[in-house]
Structures are given as structure tokens and as C-alpha cells.
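Reopening this ticket.

The earlier resolution said the output was attached, but the attachment link was broken on my side. Pasting everything inline this time so it's all in one place.
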Amino acid sequence: MIRPSRKLVLETGQEFYGVGFGASCRQVSEIVFNTSVVGYQEIISDPSYANQIVVMTYPLIGNYGITDEDFESRSGFLGGLVVRECCDTPSNFRFTETLEEELEEHGIPCLSGIDTRMLTKIIRDTGRPMAALVEADMPKEEALALIAATPRLTGQLKQVSCRKRWVTRTPHHRFHVVAVDCGIKNSILRCLKDRGCNVTIVPYNTPAEAILAFKPDGVLLSNGPISALEAPEVCSLFSRLKGKLPILGIGLGMEVMAVEYGARLLPMGCGMHGDHPVRDCATGRINIAVLNQSYRIDTLEGTGLTATHTLVPEGYVAGLEDREKQVFGVQFHLEAAPGPQDNVNLFDKFIKMMEERQNA
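Inline output:
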């Protein structure tokens, strides 16, 4: 198969020439890097990466193909993918199509054959620059003008959230959870179902009264592609539900909790995307967690919240709680599918909160 020559141009002026695959369209987006060794299918189908170009630091991507059962959501949110080497001959008895076929089907342009180590260092030093995936013969000045004319996207909640309520059920359920969809991942729903929860998934802008009308045992605020500073509807929703029933926040959901309690969010430069050590403040145990964050909490001092987890060695807050109001949130992905399962038992903390409410 003959693939076209393409290039990646950063707003800082660097150019990376390589081989295009996936869709042949142009793409101008914010670019980030991900340090995960496995899980490229989950990354390209994670709504938290909506409209971003993702650079995979692991050198070989695509070697186990794409499997129908492993999608985190419907595909098509990703802006683009950049890899050192793309494998188009997967070795996996479960695979149903190649990575390239999946990306081409959903119109996602990609680039391979470049020095992803150098690119990662540039992104690390400059933050999250804008970048363009374009034809190799496009003059650099034209590509830079294209980048300059393209604003950073905001407000992707409407793009990634469900349009209407839907339900996932499990036999002999013990609890009913309402999940506010800010870009929720299928593996989160599976973890709740495995613990005996029926889950009603609702759009991000659902009124608090409508959620309470379901008479749920708990509410989950999901991960998403933006910061809490861009999600006033979700912040208002949490404020109205706080103290009325147990609430678990993941990623964006935790940021919403922090902001509504009065904490400040600060940008993190290049952000953290991939595996990272996290310390449990109660036990001192260090686990490996999967992060996808671009903002950090300044401090919890004076907010009424307590830190439950911190990043190692940075010390940034990665988990928080208000035990009295049964509020609990983490910045990392509890389900981490696939990847480290060190923190999946934190779903049990949410289950215990609902049990305590039932027995009160």
C-alpha cells in the first residue's frame, strides 16, 4: 500500500516530515503527548481527547489491531494521531480491523515515521502548542497562517455528551446511579455494572430536578475534554445536588467539585497524559494511575475538602473528599482500561457511600 507524504507543523515553526495514514484531510488542533504503553484503541475512542492531536511516545502502535468490544465510546472525537511506527499487520485473534482502517473510517488524519521523542520534548517545553497535519508540499508559511487563523476549540461538552437519556442494566441490581455524561467511558459503566448498579446516563446539561426525579442512590460526574472553568452547567448541577446524595467525580467531575468548593484551577503546561504514580494519603501506598489532565488544583486550604490522593513527586491534589456531604472525586481514571488496575477498588468506596445512605 502506497501512503502519501505528509507533515506536522507546530505553531512554534518546527516541521516533521513523515508518512500519512488514516484520513487524508487536513487538521489543525492542540497537540499533546501520551506516555501509555498499551491502550491506543481506548485513547482514540476516549472523548477526553476530543479534537486534540495525540502523540504516542511508545514507538510501535497498531500491533494488536482494533477490537469491537474495546471501544470507550463511539469513535471520531480525536483530532489526529502521530506515531513513530504504525503496524498494519496486527497479531491478535480478537482484532476485527486495523488501526488505519478505523481511523480512515472516522476521518481522522495521522502521521508516522517521525522522531516522536524530539516532538515530545518540544511539547513538554512549550506546553500544548497548536499544530497542523497537512500535505508535505505545503509551504511552512501557509501552514503557519492556517494555524494562526484557527482558534483553540472550547465547549466540546455538547459534542461528546449524549443527546438524550439512556440506560444500562445489570441483573439483580443493588443500586441505581445517574451518570452525568461529559464524555463518559464505557469501562466506567462496566465497573459500576460489575458492582450491581443500574446506570442511567444523562446529558451534561440535565437539570438537578430531573436527576433527583429518578430517585438515584448516587450520582457520577464523568470525565470530559475540557476544564471545569468551561463547564458552568455541570458546576451548577453539582452545587444543587451536593449534600443530597453520594456523588463521585472523575477527571472533569473532580475539577467541578473543587471549583464549586472554592478551589482554584491552574494550567499545567503540557499536562499529564498516561501512567503516573499516585499516593494514597490515608495509607501512604503509591499506585500507578492513568491521567488525562491539563489543569491542577492550587490548594484545598479553606475549601472544606480533604485531599485523598496526591501525584508523586509533584504533590498536586489527585483526589479529594467531603465525608460529611458524601462527595468524593479523583483526577485519574479509576477503571484505567487497559492498564494498571491499582485504583479500580475506589469504585467500592462509592458503593459504600451509597450503602451508608441506604442504611441511614
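Reporter confirms the inline version is readable. Residues 50 and 78 are 5 Å apart (CA to CA). The first strand starts at residue 5 and ends at 10.
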